[in-house]
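tool=predict chain=A
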Amino acid sequence: METPEVADFLRELSHPLKDGIVSLRAAILASDDQITEHIKWNAPSFCYRGDDRVTFRLAPDRLQLIFHRGAKVRADTAAFSFGDGTGMLAWAAPDRGVITLTDADEVQAKLPAVVELVGRWMRATA
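tool=predict ok
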């Protein structure tokens, strides 16, 4: 569900990949009616059933999606696993992955696979 908070943030955003950010946001929100959004870490963040799970990181020359299981380290981190057949996720920790997209063509080319990964992550970490 789109929120005015994120819409306002994006309206004011000056970023070279703004169109890709807007496209990804719309596609992720449209993929599952249980996904909501808000601003976290000064960027759009997606929640599943009320829990933060995927957050944009907006660097000046790229955009990243951080796949996480919340702000706190969980006790079951060592036992957690998630299959990424796309190879897009770089693992920052056993339960924290990062997708980096550097230009508009890459965002558009990978958009369907990114949305599919977001959905699987949301369900796997619910």
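The longest strand covers residues 51-59. The CA atoms of residues 24 and 82 lie 21 Å apart.
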